[in-house]
Amino acid sequence: MDLSAINPLVLIASLMVSATPILLAAIGELVVEKSGVLNLGVEGMMIVGAICGFATAVETGSPLLGFIAAAAGSALLSLIFAVLTQFLLANQVATGLALTLFGLGFSAMLGQGYVGLKPPSTPTLHIPVLSDLPVVGTMLFSHDLMVYVSLALVAAVWATLKYTRVGLILRAVGENHDAAHALGYKVIRIRILAIMFGGACAGLGGAYLSLVRVPQWTEGMTAGAGWIALAIVVFGSWKPWRVLLGAYLFGGISVLQLNLQAAGLKVPVQYLSMSPYLITILVLVIMSANRSRAALSAPASLGRSFHASH
Amino acid sequence: MFILEKRPNPSRFWTGATPVLAVVLTMIAGGLLFAALGKNPFEAIRTIFLDPLIGDNAWYYRAQLLVKAAPLVLIAIGLSLGFRAGIWNIGAEGQYILGAIFGAGVGLWFYPSQHWYIFPLMIIAGGFGGWLWAMIPAILKTRFGTNEILVSLMLVYVAKNLLASMAVGLMRNPEGSGFPGSRDLSAYPSAANLEIFAGTGIHWGVVAAVIAVIASYILLQRHMLGFQIRLTGQAPRAARFAGVKPERLVVFCMGMSGILAGLAGMFEVAGPAGKISIDFASGYGFTAIIVAFLGRLHPIGILLAGLLMALTYVGGDIAQSNIGLPSAAIQAFQGMLLFFLLAVDLLSNYRIRFNLKEAH
Prior knowledge:
The structure holds 2 protein chains of 2 kinds.
Chain A: H1 8-34, H2 42-60, H3 63-87, H4 92-110, H5 136-140, H6 145-163, H7 165-175, H8 177-182, H9 187-213, H10 225-235, H11 240-263, H12 269-289, H13 291-297
Chain B: E1 2-6, H1 12-36, H2 41-49, H3 51-54, H4 58-84, H5 92-110, H6 118-144, H7 148-168, H8 204-222, H9 224-234, H10 236-241, H11 246-270, H12 284-294, H13 299-323, H14 327-344, H15 346-349, E2 350-354
Antiparallel strand pairs in B: 1-2
């Protein structure tokens, strides 16, 4: 095995790229869960976003339009979830699963003509001065726009939840929907908006996979990324910066295992490919082992349907 | 403006009628979807739902129906036990793969000797493999309170990688000129899961599925444990006061669904699939979730739902070869079914009151 083939600079740079899809999906899901809704359909929304973004980018030649279409497409899909769980009071776990199963089939259907095509490449941003810095420039400041958008989203979600009235209302709805309702807040409306925000973020994450990270379209290409995003929200105890940390840790592990594969580590490829999933399980166990803390940080109304009886 | 009024008890009529209504609505929406793909919707729906039953070569397709329904029913019966108690094992696909690996492993171990006990041993090994894989999320849940949804799902991806490594490594056919995939178990008489009556499609997996339906019916209706499962799902607090131990219930429900999924995988690898290969996992473990809900988590309902879902598989294959309907469209169609089912479920738990003036 040749470990010298692994360049730490490139490793960190590709870590950011590999973490971005999960980070986008996770920060969206964080907002959804903060409003008290558990949407297990992240995987389905991501893959629909992946094909919407890919198809649009290929047809129009513009990756930017691709990302916009991905966000719109997945937000639309999440609207199905919103209607079912908020108006028709369907079980959130079952509906989320349905969204994933439907999304996987639907995306495969949409993507039939797009297998094997190459998307237009997403340009990397050249930031004056910063990009030209030695070491740090290639590591942190030579990425495409979406990497920075994902970081900005984390900051925006954090600031909104912590400092603004909107954030306070969102948290109130998620902690105690009956009290929020009694105060006159439109619980259902707020939750629907949160669900759609989560859908749009998952769509961006999916499109990042198909347009930048891979970049190609194959059926089922998200390969559990949406589920890992859900796990990272738990890992981050519903706090934006910890979600960022979780996503980057996870990105680091998956990049490292790919690098070890390339470096010719004497372990069958399949066992290395398992590692991200196993580590996710390990992290979940560590987080949940400390029961009191996990119980405190989860939104109190998470997963419960709201029905105003009068 | 309409308002919803919660029923004191779920409506008996709607509990039975909603799955039928959901199927009809899915047919309509599916027809629109197929029309959007440029296919004649009536022809597509007829091909999927009628041709396997009464079309040309229906005798062949009817046998296929049982072959496809058996794993779906087996897995869904197991899942329904947990779902009833609020235990969400959604990693049945992984348990199904492990059952196949363990079952095939025993079969390959004995190759090429011929003994009557090889197949029974494979059945035990298959069930054990599925059980083992399901015990991971079960123990983690009872010990550490880890979310079983995420853990069981992550294990699906681990299982898929394990399957791939088996197909290209440990279990690869030494006479297969280097191609991935194990020896053909269906051509090895002592290990093959053959049809019991030729041409009917009834193999041992079908028998096991029928036994599972009957056993779970008795368990849920006539046994204390079944009562505890139902009680925990409907009123967890009351169940605690009644002396139900939630940990034991988690281990039992996860274990049972693991065993049944493992058996399904074993019967599949020794019969219809024939061997361990990279693409062995065909998504039965996920489709079974739809089957369990469509059957309203009731054993008899699951039997019917399994047959219906098998019909969409078999009919989907026919539609693919005859009118060029993509197989992914069938997958989307199955997902839609679950959406409609969850949507119309409202009718069994709520009464809709129409009100001309604003409710409040």
